[in-house]
Amino acid sequence: MNQEKVRTVRMHPLGDAAVVVVLGDDISVDTNARVRQFAEYVEHHPFTGMIEQVPAFQSVTVYYEPLAVLEAYGDQAAHEGQSPYVLAKSRLEGLLDQLGEAPPEAPRTVTIPVCYGGEFGPDLETVARVNHLTTEEVVAIHSGAEYLVYMLGFAPGFAYLGGMSGRIRTPRRETPRLAIPAGTVGIAGDQTGVYPIETPGGWQLIGRTPTQLFLPGEQPPALLKAGDLVRFRPIARAEYDAWKEQSP
Amino acid sequence: MSLKIHKPGLLTTVQDLGRHGAQKYGVIVSGAMDGFALRTANLLVGNEEHAAGLEVTMVGPEIELEDPTLLSVCGGDLRPRLDGEPVPLWRTIYAGRGSRLAFGGMTGAGCRAYVAFAGGIDVPERMQSRSTYLRAAIGGYEGRPLRAQDRVPLGRLSLRNANLLLAIEAQRSSVSGWTVAAELRPQYGGETTVRFLPGEEYGLFDEASRARLEREPFQVLPQSDRMGYRLTGPGLNLVRKTEMVSAAVTFGTMQVPPDGNPIVLMADRQTSGGYPKLAQVLSADLPLLAQANLGERVRFRRVSLAEAEQAIIKRERALRTLRGGLEQRAERHWKS
Lengths: 248, 336
Description:
With 248 residues, chain A is α+β, with helices and mostly antiparallel strands. Helices cover 29% and strands 27% of the residues of chain A.
């Protein structure tokens, strides 16, 4: 990472056991790439006492055990008064300096099959009506775009996707549903996403995928990760059912 | 060896110190609300600190022990009894075959008790943890709170478990003479004061709100749970409305939604949040907050990062001392 970029990075504590490394001020492909590159580098070069790193839209948060960090990097002669935060921060600054040499991982493209409309997408017609489109046009627009996974959060395996066309943007429902089945694909404002587990929610539901996004028995436990590119492929109900039969 | 559950209690779950390393996939940490109490209970029976135990909430279960074992109850005082006899907290207890552990109810000193058994609770690990993740129904005992008729498996005894068992059998009493130093035990109950560091958006709240946070008490609302403590109290307001971008939140993060009533995120928090962060409760004070019962009052006091760090390091060192002391005791017995 060049000097100019290093200077734009800010760090601040999240309580007494985490450092937030802020790598940008916008939600953009560029900022996401920097967040992803740093997150991957930290993942592969953890410091002693580090627990885990969690990337978000603009930042990477690094959790650590204060006493372990103090003992690993503190001055043994002057234990009292030394700050685990300052020590952890200086490790991360060191990693930032080395970052230039780390080649960024090439993004994967993940295709998610979706059965649109019908009982799986009870709000598809609402989305069409709000946007003065036919339901076929909504499906074509939704499945015609490529989406970037900015981060995972909200629910296990849930991806915040960027790149949905403004032509199908639709406000949330006024009354949230109490239970939305796992695999449901929805739209909320400018965002689209897939519910990995059954949750309540106010999204407009347009379809469902037979693919599991949360895989608790596997490593990694999620189909998607930050930096992936996602495409939705329309499938018929018969294909959905066949898929479900193979992997219930 | 297993535990036979006769009555489940209000919300009894298997918890360890949480599921770390998968937050980047949106998987929440879970784990004990009062991690200090679980760690202490584990040490007292000779387990590793991160072994799985039971988190007992407000109304306790009734549990039959199939075989003789060591147990320890730490944290909130829910009046534990073994075969009708009161069980002192923060000690090692020898429990004979067929004995029954039950709870008399809350005393006002905490609302969650932690029970550790020698060998730990041996449910399968899911994503490197045995903690129950209730919403996703994974981990713990079949991903859910305990029910009557469940049989909860315990792990095999380690040498350290066995040595402590021998040490306590050598006493006349089934209750250990050793305990946790009084100054190490948190003072649960009553009006709790917890210390905080300013959160990232602290400066975006108006001056009156920041003053109220420190001056006035907040009450724990009934809809509080393992995910978050909803507090009522004086409204806390931003100087002006701010668009927030989702970023990491952690145990003890105080977020303020637009209604002005703060939420302090707890063990089952989401991995990220989008509300302004007013404050961050000190790691060292999370056990106190986790034991504050519904309806109780909590006060907040601002401190420096240096004080926060010293508090958690002191706590960690004290736990290490406790562990060392118990190991010596077990070894001394072994050698004698």
